[in-house]
Every structure is written in C-alpha cells, then in structure tokens.
Write a structure and sequence with these properties.
The complex is a heterodimer of chains A (741) and B (338).
Chain A: H1 2-10, H2 15-24, H3 30-49, H4 56-72, H5 83-94, H6 100-115, H7 121-134, H8 138-155, H9 162-178, H10 185-197, H11 204-214, H12 219-245, H13 251-260, H14 265-286, H15 295-298, H16 302-315, H17 323-340, H18 345-351, H19 362-371, H20 379-393, H21 400-416, H22 423-430, H23 438-454, H24 465-474, H25 493-513, H26 517-529, H27 531-541, H28 547-554, H29 559-571, H30 575-595, H31 600-619, H32 625-632, H33 641-645, H34 655-663, H35 675-685, H36 692-698, H37 701-712, H38 716-732
Chain B: H1 2-14, H2 56-69, H3 73-88, H4 98-105, H5 114-126, H6 129-132, H7 136-147, H8 152-175, H9 181-191, H10 197-201, H11 220-238, H12 248-256, H13 285-295, H14 297-310, H15 312-329
The chains are: A mainly alpha (741), B mainly alpha (338).
Keywords (chain A): Nucleus, Protein transport, Ribosome biogenesis, Transport
InterPro entries (chain A): ARM-type_fold, Sda1, SDA1_C, SDA1_MD, SDA1_N
Domain SDA1 C-terminal (chain A): 688-733
C-alpha cells in the first residue's frame, strides 16, 4: 500500500483525478474510460487466472480499477454493459477466496451501481443473499447483512415496494422450508426480525416466514423464530419511541443564533433546515398512528401452529431443545392458546410432570400454565393441575417463597378459569392469609379477593365480605357457567359516554361563568334538535384525532366527583335502582356507539377510564402501585415468571439502592461547595450567562466606590427623585418597559 | 489549618536522609520508572542467523522474492540485476525454472519506476526463448494491462516487452486465447483508432476521439513506436503458415503419441470459463485475417491514412504498417458469400 502511495507521486496520472475528470465531462474522456475499461478487463483476466494466488499488487490494481469504473459506469452504459455481470459473477464464485478488501470493494461497487440504477434491487439482493447464507467469513456476513438491510430500507423508503418485498419474502420462506435442519435459515430470521422492527414489513407474509422458522429442526432457527413472536412487537414499539425522542432540534436556539451571528447563506440554510426538520417532526407526531397488528394477531391458523409447535418441540420426547429454549417455546404456545382461546387439551396433562418445586425455573412453567388458560378450557383439565400445585407447593412445610409462588400461580389460573377450583381446596388455601410470611399472606389475600368477585359462593360465609354477600343475596352476582359469554358491546363504553357528558356539562358551566351562557344554551338546543349530526360535529370541534387530549391537558377533568358517583353505583344495594341504571347505561352505550365514530383519542380515554374503573373496583379508592400495574396489564401481554414470584420479592431495598435513590435528582458533589456555587458551575458548563445580580456582586469594588461615595453626598430632593425613578422603573419593568416592545 | 502540619511534614521529608540498611538495597528514587519487561519469545525480524554463506540456490530465490515484493525500488532493481547476471552466465544458473521467474516478475511490467522496468526487460531478454512460450498467455495479460496503463512511460516500456515476446514466441502470441483480438483492442486504445468509442458516447461530432490526454502526450515519437510495434504484431499474425511436408507418421503420432506441446488441447477450453469473441483463440492465419477484416480493417486503415499524412517518424512507421497490411491482407478474399 505504502509503495503504491509513493508510486502515485511518481506517476503523473492517477485514477482518482481521471474519475474526477470523467465525472465533469464524460464525452471528452470516453477514450480514457475505454482504456481503463480495457485495463480493468486485463486485470480481471490476470486475477481470474489465479484468484487464490494473486499478488498483492495485482489485487490492489484490480481494486482501484473496479472502484473507478463503478463510480463512472453510469456515464457509459454501453461500454460498461458487462461490468455488473462481471462483478456479480466474481463475488458469487470467488467470495470465499477473495482478498477481504477487494471483496468489500466489490460489494460496495455493486451497491453503488444499484444506486446509479444500472442494476435493480432485486438482482442485487438475489446476488448478495445467497452469499450471505453461504459465506464462512464473519466480516463479510456482517457487511452483506448490513447492505441487504439498508437496500431494503431504501427501496421501501418512498413508497412500499411490494414486488421486491414479495420476492425477498418468498426467498426467505423458501430458504427456511427447503432445508429444515440447516442453520442457514437463521439469516432469514434475522433479516425478517430487523425489517419487522423497523416497520418495513408489517403484513402477514413475514409472520408466515417466522412461523416456518419456529417449526424448523435447527434449534437456533427455532429459538430465533420463537423470540420474534415473544418480543418482536415490543421491540418495534421501543424503536418507534426511540425514534420520536431522538434529535430534538432546539429551534429557538437556532433562531437566536441566526439573529446574533453574522448573516451568511450557510447559516440561513442551517436555519431553514432546522425549521423544516421541526415541521417534519411535528407532522410525524401528529400523523395518525399506523395501525400495526402484532405478529401474534397476523398469524394464519394459530390453532394449527400451536398444535404443531407443541407436538414438535414439547411433546416429542426426541426433541432436543435445552430447558431454556423449551421454556421459550412453551411460552409461545401458551401465549397463543391464551390469546386466541385455542384448545390444545394435551397441553395441560403435559404440564403435570413439571409442576414440582424442584423443577428448574418452575415459576416460568407456572406462568406459562396460567397464560395458557382461558375461560374455554374445560375445568376438568385444569383441576388436577391445581390440586397438584396445591399439594406440591402449598403446605406448612414448604418454604414461604414456594408457597407464595404456588398460591399466586393458582390465583392466576383461576382468574382466567374460575370454574377450575373446588370449594374445599379454596377454603383451605384462603386460610393462608393468616400466614406470618408477607408474600404468602398477600398471595392468599389475592386469591380471596379474586373469588369474592368471581365465585363468592365457594367461600365460607364469613370470608365473603360485604359486597359479595349483598350481591349474592340480591342475585346481582351470578356465577358464570362454562362457556358463557357476555352479550356483545364495548367494555367501558358507558364510562366514556358518562365522561363525555360530564365534560360537556363542565364546559357549559365554564362558559356560563364567563358570561356566555346564552351561546352555550343555543348550542345545547341545537344538539337536541339533530343528535346524530352534532355528535360528529362535536368531535370535529374538539380537534378530531388529536386535540382531544390537548384540552385534557389544559383543564384536568374533575376526578373526585366522578369516582364518587361511580363508587356508590357499584355498591348500590337497591335492586330496582341498579336495574334502571343498567338499562340507562346500556342505552347510553348503544347511543354513543351507534351515533359517532370513536377516534383514537376516544379509545385512549376509554382505556384509561376502564383501567381506573378496574382499580377502583378492586381496591376502593386506595392507590396501590401493584394493583395498578396488575390492572394495566393488557390481554395481549404475556404473563412472566416475575409476576408469579412478585410478592416473594417483597424484601426491602439494599443500602446501595437507597443511597442511589436519595442521590437521584440532586447535583453532583465532588468537593464541598455551596449549593449556589454548584448551580453556578452547572450553568457555566451549559454555556449560560450570569444574572444581573451575580454581575453586580462580582463587580470590582473600586469601580463601585465612586458611585457609593457620591450617593452619600446627595441632597434630599435628589434622593427622592432617584427613589421615585426606581419605583417607576420597577413598575414599568425596566427602563424600556417590559410590555413587549 | 489542619493541613499545614501535614504539609510541613511533607516538606521536611525531602531533606531527610534515607537510611541505608544491610540487605535491603537502595531505596528507589521518586521519579523511578520501571523499564523491565517480560516476554515469552523474542522475535528477531528479518535477520539471518546462519554462519555460513548462503548457497547460490537460496540466494537466487531470495533475490527473486526481493525483486517481486521489495518496497524499495533500488532493491528491486538490484535484485533484478543479480538475477540477470545469473541467467546470462554460461551456463545459465536458474534453479527455479523460467516459468516460476515469469510468474513472479510479470507484475513488474507496470512497476512505477523506469529503472526497474528497464532492468526487467534486460532480464526477460536473458531468458531462454524456448522456456517462455508456455507462459505467453499469462505474459500477454500483463502486457495488455500495461498497454492500457494510465502512465505513458509504462505504456511505452510495455511495448518493449511485447516486442521481446514477439521475438521469442511470435506464433504463440498471436494464436493464444485472447492474444489476437484483445491485444488489437489494446493497440487501438493506445493509438486512439477506435471504432466503438463514437458510438458508445453517442456523439457524432466533428472531432475524433481525443488524442490530447493520454495516448500521444509524448509526441510523435511514442506514436511512431506504437505503430511500429503494431506492424510487427500484425506481421507475426499474418505470417504465412509454413507448410509442413506430408509425413505419413504424423497422423499416427497424433493419435497414439503423447503430445509434446504444452497444453495441447487448449482450443477445447476444457477447464477455463467460457470465452467470448474477443477471448477466443485464433490459431491459424485465415481466421485471424477474417476477424481482422471484420473488426479492425476499417478503423486501422482510417487511422493509417491520418498517420501517413503526418509525415516524419510517424509517417515512416505508418508506411511500414501499410506495407505489412498489404502483404498480410493481400490474399484475403473477404467474407465468403453464403
């Protein structure tokens, strides 16, 4: 290399300057390009005659020529017609033996001529992908993977390139299905996952690719596929959040700088760019959220998939997955079963042998079992498992953590299928609420409160509590039968309707208070005149898709009255009253659902209200972090081992954690300094200036002494004038006033 | 105030005399730096530890490797000079064989130093002509790369190498795969007599392809030389095939005897990649004439006319070329009508 640099000084012409000249005037330099194309051809022949033993010099020459021709090939499409094919053949045949630098250059050149639209994406990707799959070199794989990814991103940046996507997805699908045992399919998994994460592929086809990966025979591929289903969507959301956070331009700062610094075209451009960027960000922020379905929902035939997964990797005794990977597969299977309410009966009997405290990571098994339960699972299938958990985990002899985990697991299962519990066992388990261990106690209490809601008659009378007893007596609480479902409707919609009404009322009140009562009445009358139209008008008034949340921020909704009015409703003892209420609620609900279209903002509010109602219902009005977290859990989210173990981890924080917590949000104290000084140095570091007060304090004494002396010699009238002037200025807000120019 | 005592102590410490003790060693100075190091092995780079003088074979190989891969140009030149003396000694001392030498040294054709290239040519001339012919195809690749090199000096010097090749193995040069068409391509690029450039750029302007930049920067002298070598090349190509007297044995030899030539079935192209028209081999005079006529005749005649008009050295060289063409293509009847 060094020798070559020296040589360039010697030889008066070099390829870089030629490339530059060609770029500027392609027609005049056609001859030179032709020469170099011939040189490239000759070098290629030299190289191909002995690709493995080519000397460093030859490789270097060839490298340079390839580089030059790739950069200017678009100027002479006829002369360099063979170039792309040459490169493709070269990299396809010799990628294993090529010099790494040359290899990189060839890949780069291919990408370059693709960008110059000499070849298209499809041909580039179909060249690179087979190499990615087959090459033994790690660095080349990394390079190719990155290239393929960026090319796909680029191809989909302006508009979605369906044709290309379909081609590539088919290639990936074939790669996985053609040879189920080969580890090459891992690349299909990686690529799909990455593109899913970046929301380039969001339809059912990549999910299908991943499904095939899950059913492969290679362990790595299987795990890759399973992990995608378990975490791919979360990853996607996180990336989206990151994107929106990143690179916030401080437009005020830029504008300020433009105002102060010397004006130049460059600065102007910078400012324009910043403004544009901010605008784009705003637009992006306000753009309607793309409706992306999660991978689990896009699955075609989840029942078949879950059954195949279960039979292939779990039930099959010849499957040789490690425990960790088995757990992942199990998690996916149960997630599918729970989410889509599938019926895989043999799954439950399979669980039986893993439900012992000595089983490694048993809490994960317990979580999976609970996750795989739903209200359509036959209670007969679950009952033996619950009995087994109770026998194995919950006893006086067992460690408190074990017992807590057992009871928690039972609670989670029963929350999903309450019919799986029998009376004696439940009453026995509820006794543990008197346990001395906090974890066990809390777990048992959780079970108790659960059954007060879903099956109070299984409890002893004194355990039922007030609400449940009353509910049972009035017949308000009825036990669900197996397979019984609620009549259709949108959960919590009546809450939304009520909230909307209250909002409206509040606004009207506010208007009246402002003396615009008349108008308010008018609008009210109008509303009553033609209900349907105004309802939609109303929503457009409040800003349509986004701004609804805005006026929430401005005026926080009155929380107190709402919760107050709700709580009695839930506990209301009067039967007639409750019936009337229910009828009214149903009517309200249908009205809202049939007369207006719910905007995303509405849906968000609905979710919030639903949550609040859940929390209130469970805990009265006590706010408890744990309960809130429990209520906030979405149906789509899986159950994790931590949630089973949670109460057993109630021990206090360590000292370090407490110290860290105490330190949080306070300035760093490297040395002993006053708070003022610390604040000052922080400001300095941020490049902020001092306040007038600080300037005055720091001012040199000798500079102030003259004025101080003169002050002593003032006459009374002078003093008065000065004082008056001071008061006047402070009222105006400074010499020039502070009322905005 | 608390620290002043400590500081006082620290200051006082500087003036205290360190006590020497038996068996303890000297106390180390405050600015002492540990320079000792540990290593599992000692590697002595590029140093021969042999006590006897290297034997001539080793020396030859060493010089060969120096010539092909040394960073310094003088070293390369000197190594080449050493090799040349060895090869031109009587009897020539060549322990590695001509083929190995060529493989190693051919890349030096496009070396950036004139002195190295000059010495290389001397070395080539010292090689036994018989040993060169098997490697002509490989050598031609480098020659072609050199002929289209960016630097005019290298182009000119490469012509010398081609001339040498024509001297020692003229037949092989024109008949090896790619030897005829591709080399002619390179010539046309060198001289700027190119039929395809105008079409490629789509310009049908009144100027011909530029000769201003690379091809003829060194004036007519270089161009004359190029035309001269082209004439020699064409001479070699159009040399009438010598009639072999009929030998009844030849037929049987062909069938039952091991062939004596290197790579006797090259025309079948059993192992290489598929060849196109340019890379094809044109083993006999007639096929060469045909290809020349269809692809080059027009362009070269046109260029030739212009060159003749220039007069001087170029004109003289053009006259020689003209003569060669007349002799070589005189008996060509054109494409047989079909």
């Amino acid at each position: 290399m060094k020798r070559k640099v020296a040589a360039l000084e010697k030889v008066d012409a070099d390829l870089v300057s030629l490339q530059y000249k060609i770029r500027r005037d392609p027609k005049s330099y056609a001859q030179e390009f032709y020469d170099q194309y011939l040189a490239y051809d000759a070098q290629k022949q030299i190289f191909l005659s002995a690709p493995t033993t080519a000397s460093a010099e030859d490789v270097k020459n060839f490298h340079d020529l390839v580089d030059m021709i790739a950069h200017v090939a678009d100027c002479y499409p006829e002369m360099s017609g063979q170039f792309a094919e040459d490169l493709k053949a070269l990299i396809t045949q010799h990628h294993a033996t090529l010099d790494p630098e040359l290899r990189e250059k060839v890949v780069g050149s291919l990408a370059l001529i693709k960008r110059k639209e000499i070849i298209d994406s499809t041909s580039l990707l179909t060249t690179l992908f087979p190499i990615l799959v087959s090459t033994p070199s790690k660095s080349l794989r990394a390079l190719l993977f990155q290239r393929i990814l960026s090319d796909l991103r680029e191809a989909n940046s302006k508009s979605i390139n369906h044709r290309l996507n379909r081609t590539i997805q088919t290639v990936l699908h074939n790669l996985i299905t053609s040879d189920k045992t080969s580890p090459k399919a891992i690349w299909a998994v990686k690529l799909t996952r990455e593109l899913w994460k970046r929301q380039i592929w969001t339809d059912a086809k990549p999910v299908d690719v991943m499904k095939e990966a899950c059913l492969a025979d290679n362990e790595k591929v299987v795990v890759g596929g399973v992990r995608f289903f378990l975490g791919g969507d979360k990853e996607r959301e996180e990336l989206e959040d990151d994107d929106s956070d990143a690179e916030n331009v401080d437009i005020k700062r830029v504008a300020h700088q433009v105002g102060i610094n010397k004006k130049s075209k460059k600065r102007e451009k910078v400012y324009k760019k910043a403004v544009e960027k901010v605008k784009r960000q705003e637009k992006k922020k306000h753009a309607p959220h793309p409706l992306n379905f999660s991978a689990l929902h896009l699955l075609h035939d989840p029942q078949g998939f879950a059954e195949q997964l279960f039979q292939k990797h779990l039930q099959n005794t010849k499957a040789k997955l490690t425990l960790e990977h088995k757990l992942l597969v199990l998690q996916l299977v149960t997630r599918l079963v729970g989410l889509h309410k599938l019926t895989v009966i043999s799954l439950y009997s399979w669980f039986a042998k893993y439900l012992t405290p000595k089983q490694a990571s048993v809490t994960s098994f317990l979580a999976s079992l609970a996750q795989g339960t739903h209200n359509l699972v036959p209670p007969d299938a679950l009952e033996p498992l619950i009995v087994k958990i109770a026998n194995e985990f919950v006893s006086e002899a067992a460690a408190s953590e074990v017992a807590a985990a057992g009871i928690n697991a039972i609670r989670e299962i029963c929350a999903r299928q309450p019919l799986a519990m029998n009376e004696t066992l439940l009453q026995d388990l509820v006794q543990y609420r008197k346990s001395k261990d906090k974890g066990v106690m809390m777990a048992a209490k959780g079970l108790l409160s659960l059954y007060r809601e879903v099956g109070a008659d299984l409890l002893k009378k004194r355990d039922r509590g007030k609400d449940a007893t009353i509910g049972l007596r009035t017949g308000e609480i009825k036990n669900r039968k197996f397979g019984e479902e609620d009549a259709g409707g949108i959960e919590g919609l009546e809450l939304l309707a009520k909230w909307k009404e209250e909002e409206k009322k509040r606004k009207r009140d506010a208007k009246e208070a402002n003396g615009e009562g008349k108008e308010g009445e008018d609008s009210e009358e109008e509303e009553e005149d033609d209900g349907w139209e105004v309802a939609s008008l109303e929503s457009s008034d409040s800003g349509g898709w986004i701004n609804v949340s805005d006026d929430e921020d401005e005026a926080p909704p009155p929380k107190k009255p709402r919760t107050d009015s709700e709580a009695p409703e839930l506990v209301d003892a009067d039967k007639e009253n409750s019936e009337e209420d229910a009828a009214a609620a149903l009517q309200r609900m249908t009205e809202l659902a049939t007369t207006s279209i719910l905007t995303p903002a509405d849906l968000a509010k609905l979710q919030e209200l639903r949550l609040q109602a859940k929390v209130d219902g469970a805990m009265g009005n006590r706010s408890n972090k744990h309960v809130k977290a429990l209520a906030a859990r979405h149906d789509d989210d899986g159950l994790t081992a931590e949630q089973i173990e949670l109460p057993s981890k109630l021990r206090k924080t360590t000292k370090e954690e407490r110290v860290a917590m105490a330190k949080e949000g306070k300035p760093e104290r490297g040395e002993h300094k006053s708070t003022q000084a610390i604040r000052r140095s922080k400001k300095d570091a941020e490049g902020k200036s001092t306040t007038n007060k600080e300037k005055a304090r720091k001012k040199n004494f000798l500079m102030t002494i003259g004025k101080a002396k003169a002050k002593n010699k003032r006459s009374l009238t002078e003093t008065r004038r000065v004082l008056k002037g001071h008061i006047d200025r402070s009222k105006r807000g400074g010499k020039r006033g502070n009322i905005g120019c | 105030m608390g620290s002043s005592n400590r500081k006082k102590n620290e200051k006082a410490k500087d003036f205290k005399k360190a006590k020497l003790r038996v068996g303890k060693g000297k106390p180390q100075a405050s600015n002492f730096t540990d320079t000792s190091f540990k290593s599992k092995a000692i590697v002595v780079n590029q140093q021969s530890l042999s006590e006897t003088a290297p034997d001539p074979v080793e020396q030859f190989k060493h010089n060969l490797s120096l010539a092909s891969s040394s960073r310094s140009d003088t070293q390369r030149k000197e190594a080449l000079a050493y090799l040349t003396t060895q090869l031109s000694a009587k009897p020539p001392n060549n322990p590695v064989g001509t083929s190995a030498i060529l493989t190693k040294l051919l890349p030096l054709i496009s070396d950036s130093y004139t002195s190295v290239r000059g010495q290389l040519l001397k070395l080539f001339r010292a090689l036994p002509p018989a040993g060169v012919s098997p490697d002509v195809e490989k050598a031609l690749m480098y020659v072609r790369a050199g002929m289209t090199h960016l630097s005019p000096e290298i182009r000119t010097d490469t012509l010398n190498v081609l001339e040498w090749l024509l001297d020692v193995a003229g037949d092989e040069v024109v008949s090896c795969p790619g030897g005829w068409m591709k080399t002619l391509n390179s010539f046309s690029a060198m001289l700027g007599w190119n039929p395809s450039i105008g079409n490629a750029t789509g310009s049908k302007g009144w100027t011909t392809a530029s000769k201003a930049t690379l091809g003829a920067t060194k004036g007519g002298n270089a161009q004359a030389r190029q035309i001269q070598i082209l004439a020699r090349f064409l001479q070699a190509g159009f040399k009438p095939d010598n009639q072999v007297a009929y030998d009844p044995q030849a037929f049987w030899d062909n069938i039952y005897r091991m062939p004596r030539r290197p790579n006797p079935f090259a025309y079948l192209n059993l192992f290489g990649p598929a060849r196109d028209e340019e890379g094809e081999m044109y083993p006999d005079r007639e096929s060469r004439q045909r290809v020349f006529y269809s692809r080059w005749n027009k362009a070269i005649t046109k260029g030739l006319d212009e060159a003749k008009k220039e007069g001087g050295a170029v004109g003289r060289a053009a006259a020689v070329l003209d003569q060669t063409l007349k002799e070589g293509m005189g008996d060509y009847k054109g494409e047989p009508e079909s």
